[in-house]
Amino acid sequence: ATSKQLPYILYSDEKNLFSERRLALMGELKKALHNQTELHLVLQPQIRLSDKQVHGAEALLRWRHKEHGLIAPSEFIPLAEEAGIITDISLWVIEEALQLNHLICNTNPDHVISVNISAQDLEQPNFVAKLTQLVNNSPVANHQLLLEVTESAMMNNPGDAHLALAQINQLGVKTSIDDFGTGYSSLSYLSLLPVNELKIDKRFVLDISAKTQNYTITETILNLSQNLGLQSVAEGIEDADALYTLRDLGCDYGQGYYISKPLSLPDYLNWLANHLARI
Ligand code: C2E
Ligand code: MG
Ligand code: MG
Ligand code: MG
User: Fold this and answer.
1) What are the EAL domain coordinates in residue numbering (predicted)?
2) H-run or E-run covering 122
3) Whose CA is nearest to atom 11 of ligand 1?
4) Nearest to 254 by CA among 58, 42, 41, 93
5) Which phi and psi (to 5°) does residue 33 adopt?
6) ipTM over cut 0.90
7) Engineering a disulfide at 83: which of 26, 62, 76, 216 sits with its beta carbon 3.0 to 4.6 angstroms away?
8) Residues 173 and 135: beta-carbon distance below 8 Å
């Protein structure tokens, strides 16, 4: 009986979907995208764990609303998906990220910029064509752009996801499975996807030293990634202990508050100039 009731509980929760705040925010998000004043990217460094050299940065979107202040992506990204404007947002973020990376390459020529994209993007027939235009217009090498897609997003529509990833791969743009280990996808399906990297979710990394279970899961994901010939990155590194544990397990790259919080471009450029002295 409980399993039959579940959808109704979810449905009544989702009445909030069309609450006034949500509807107002959807309209304002469209305007913010159009005016390009309230949206900006922050950058969180990713380092190579073996020698702590900078590998790249993840670009994370921020919306500074003129009345409500900073709105979290966990609130406005689902709104953008509802409103059908997520692909316009993704393309804006990619274009912006390519520009920032071009600047960063002045001092760090091999710097890789990662961008989060959404399930809907992979289902849009035009997405790859528009991505192609953007990377062709950027002087930075295509392999210095990486697109992160969550495991659950891939499962939304596995056929479309697979095709789009194969085309992105042809372009030379890199791809990563974000929040790896948190979905319900089968390993046999995931292992067939044409991606370059597995990104270990922060829920396993945050208490990797305190919880044997999380250590074991992380170890298993890293073995899988090595066996599949994929690179690996961990998010949510909050202390030195997590950093060295992951390094010793063979994880290639890492990001987290211990290394740095997400930073504005000027702060990030400054961080790049001094980071080895800090970690
Ligand atoms: P994500 O891609 O898994 O990004 C990692 C999130 O973890 C970021 O939150 C980051 O600030 C946070 N984080 C980083 N290091 C640490 C740490 O050491 N400890 C803890 N507790 N958290 C850490 P943020 O920026 O709030 O983003 C949340 C999610 O929103 C992202 O998760 C991503 O799924 C989505 N998102 C952000 N920007 C974009 C975007 O441009 N497009 C799309 N489609 N989604 C985005
Ligand atoms: Mg991500
Ligand atoms: Mg290019
Ligand atoms: Mg994640």
Assistant:
1) 22-276
2) helix 119-123
3) 262
4) 58
5) -65, -40
6) yes
7) 26
8) yes
Q: Which atom of ligand 1 is nearest to the CA of 179?
A: 3
DSSP letter at 142? Answer: G
Give CA–CA dist 78/153, Å, rounded.
12
Residue nearest to atom 27 of ligand 1 (CA): 73
**Distance, CA 204 to ligand 3 centroid (Å)?**
35
What is the distance between the alpha carbons of residues 28 and 35, in angstroms, rounded to a whole number?
10
- Runs of H (alpha helix) within 36-109: 73-82, 86-104
Which amino acid is it at 188?
S
Burial class (CB in 10 A: 0-12, 13-18, 19+), 135: buried
Reading the block at residue 271, the tokens are 């961080």
Q: Is this prediction's pTM over 0.90?
A: yes
Q: Which residues surround ligand 4, an ion (CB under 5 A)?
A: 178-179
Give the residue from 122, 127, 228, 236 showing the smallest Cα distance to 179. 236
Burial (Cβ within 10 Å: 0-12, 13-18, ≥19) of residue 57: buried
> What does the pLDDT look like over 154-195, one tens digit per residue?
888 888 999 999 999 999 999 999 999 888 777 878 888 999
* Any atom of ligand 1 within 6 Å of the Cβ of 259: no
Ligand 2: centre distance to CA 70 (Å): 19
CA distances for 190 relative to 15, 19, 150, 178, 246, angstroms: 34, 37, 11, 12, 22
